[in-house]
Design brief:
Layout (H helix, E strand, L loop, with lengths): L3 H22 L1 H7 L14 E5 L8 H11 L3 E4 L10 H13 L3 E10 L2 H14 L3 E6 L4 H11 L2 E5 L11 H8 L6 E6 H6 L4 H8 L3 E6 L1 E2 L8 E2 L8 H11 L4 E4 L9 H15 L2
Parallel strand pairs: 1-2, 1-10, 2-3, 3-4, 4-5, 5-6, 6-7, 7-10
Antiparallel strand pairs: 8-9
Helix pairs in contact: 1-2, 5-6, 9-10
Length: 285
């Protein structure tokens, strides 16, 4: 029978054999694993996470802003149901004060549908009064030369929103590119990755291909790469988000990443939280 001294001596020798031997045999491993060695500084993440106002079409501005504050999201693309196109300067000022109280900034307006030159004029004047320099718009094709003139006049960026197979104009990134590539360089697209996929396209490849004209992104996930695809929590659908984030880094994307959540739109809050949590985790925001 072994005594206590023999037992502890054998146990200590076993610990050395199992745990200490690799450290003794490889000095480089010991150096890397040193818990007191300082880690290199973390690279700055250029991505900005925002919210597309359409997500809250069924809710008032107060509910929207309280939700964004709780989610630690600080940018909002303003929709006209929260700030009408005919708002007075006083109403616009009150809107911004309310946003600031919740640490939210309105970074753009739209999407705004434009079917006449008068509606283009109205949209640009509205954006100027709101104090933003990015319009997310949906102009009829024949209005693009007029939009080009207004962009030069106002020195704004104009991002055309993609709509997949749901409407005839701007179904995907390629269509938006073909209609804007010869216009002023400040006219481009809001790359809605879900609608791009629903039109049978690859949003990751399209981001890489057309990135010089991608001024805004609507991030979402969908269940299928056809018109039958519907919104779902980010990470549960067909979009390869790790590949998307990798592409964003490769092209040095510095625009906004705005969640547009379109599932359970009368009770979207858990899905919004899950989607934001997933996107923050994979992009390390």
């Amino acid at each position: 029978m072994q005594n206590r001294r023999t037992f502890f001596r054998q146990s200590f020798a076993g610990a050395l054999a199992l745990g200490a031997a690799p450290w003794i045999g490889n000095a480089k491993i010991a150096e890397v694993a040193d818990p007191v060695k300082p880690k290199p500084p973390k690279a700055e993440n250029p991505f900005k996470l925002g919210m597309a106002g359409f997500t809250f079409v069924n809710f008032d501005l107060d509910t929207t802003l309280k939700t964004l504050e709780r989610l630690d999201v600080h940018y909002l693309c303003i929709k006209d149901f929260h700030l009408p196109l005919d708002s007075t300067d006083e109403q616009i000022g009150a809107f911004h004060e309310k946003c600031a109280a919740h640490r939210v900034t309105g970074y753009a307006v739209g999407p705004i549908y434009m079917k006449s030159e008068a509606e283009v004029d109205r949209g640009f004047a509205y954006a100027r009064r709101v104090g933003v320099k990015l319009i997310v718009g949906v102009p009829d094709y024949e209005l693009l030369p007029y939009v080009d003139r207004k962009v030069k006049e106002y020195d704004f960026h104009y991002a055309i929103h993609l709509h997949g197979p749901d409407i005839k104009i701007y179904p995907d990134a390629t269509d938006a590119w073909e209609h804007t590539k010869d216009l002023d360089g400040r006219i481009g697209m809001c790359l809605d990755i879900g609608h791009d996929l629903r039109n049978g396209c690859d949003p990751v490849a399209d981001l890489k291909k057309y990135h010089t004209r991608v001024f805004d992104m609507h991030i979402k996930d969908v269940t299928d790469s056809t018109k039958a695809g519907v919104g779902i929590e980010i990470g549960r659908g067909k979009i390869d988000f790790p590949a998307l984030v990798k592409a964003m880094r490769e092209i040095n994307y510095t625009g906004m990443c705005s969640l547009e959540y379109e599932k359970d739109m009368k009770d979207p809050f858990l899905g919004i939280a899950e989607s934001i949590g997933y996107f923050k985790a994979i992009s390390d925001l």
